[in-house]
What does this fold into?
Amino acid sequence: MQKIHERCCGLDVHKKSITACLITPAEAGKSAQVIRSFGTTTAELLELVDWLVQSECTIAAMESTGSYWKPVYNLLEGALEVWVVNAHHIKSVPRRKTDVKDAQWIAELLQHGLLRPSFIPSAAMRELQELVRYRKSLIQERSAEVNRIQKVLEGANIKLASVATDIMGMSGRAILSALVAGQANPEEMAALAKGKLRSKLPQLQQALRGTVCPHQRFILAQMLAHVDFLDEALKQCSDEIAERLRPSQAEVERLCTIPGVKQKTAEIGTDMSQFPTAKYLASWAGLCLGHYESAGKQYFGRTRNGSVSLRTGLVEAAQAAGRARNTYLGTRYQRLKLHKGSNRAAVAVAHKILVIVYHLLTCQPNDLSRVRQ
It folds into this structure.
């Protein structure tokens, strides 16, 4: 079999150790293999980099194992070409499962050109991804804390959520602060309501009639302080994301014209040069339907696995676009929902949004004729 890479290395990456198999040319057109093991600390990874550079290795490949590949990729990225490959594309020899055999198998597949690299965004884009995903985790943590506040209120027989749409709004927060301070008079607490909630004062007074014990006031005080901390962290994180998106503000504003799409979702950046067509981008994101045919009959196929964060963001955008009236995406969502259900409709609209995103980023602002609905 033809050898594509004369000097290459296969890496079997784990949490605490890395097994490397280096293939180099030998006599009579054969290849020699050198096996070495390294740790995963920065000093040990730099030793791996130095060894590969001194051995004149031109390319290395490793599986995308959890997040353990990231520190290895970060240090190898500037020294030589490095591939992160899909673990499903690599199957070791049966009954010979060891770290050394895995590294040898990866190196041999790489040497003969039987591996395909996964798309890895640039360093700046990876940093932005971490910020966006961290912001999402902060939002989820805040929602969980608000749910815990509601649970404590229910235990105290306070039915604030039955009257107020948002218990963490201005009115709800003022009432909660009064509860923590020791206020027990329903009329006085209801008088803190503002805006539209003042039209529900009788219902609010009934909802605030309960028994709040001292330990519940203590718990509520801790929870409200935690929510305040999360709000401040969210604000700082959002400001950092906005600052990093400033150089691409024109592209971001164009993308925000799509119903359901907001500035806070950033997973692939604005550079589409690595995707030849929109179909490649949709396939990478895992939003293409599988192809399943038997006996000349077409069956429904499942979507493949892709970027979980990107897929989740696009599906959320599709669900938001489905509620938009007098829009193409909203009409498409409602039509598919009747025949395929809400989940399949959301995936189909998410696929359409991603296609529109691709064309908006590849077309010039004055030439969007290629964007087809």
Residues 123-155 form the longest helix (33 residues).
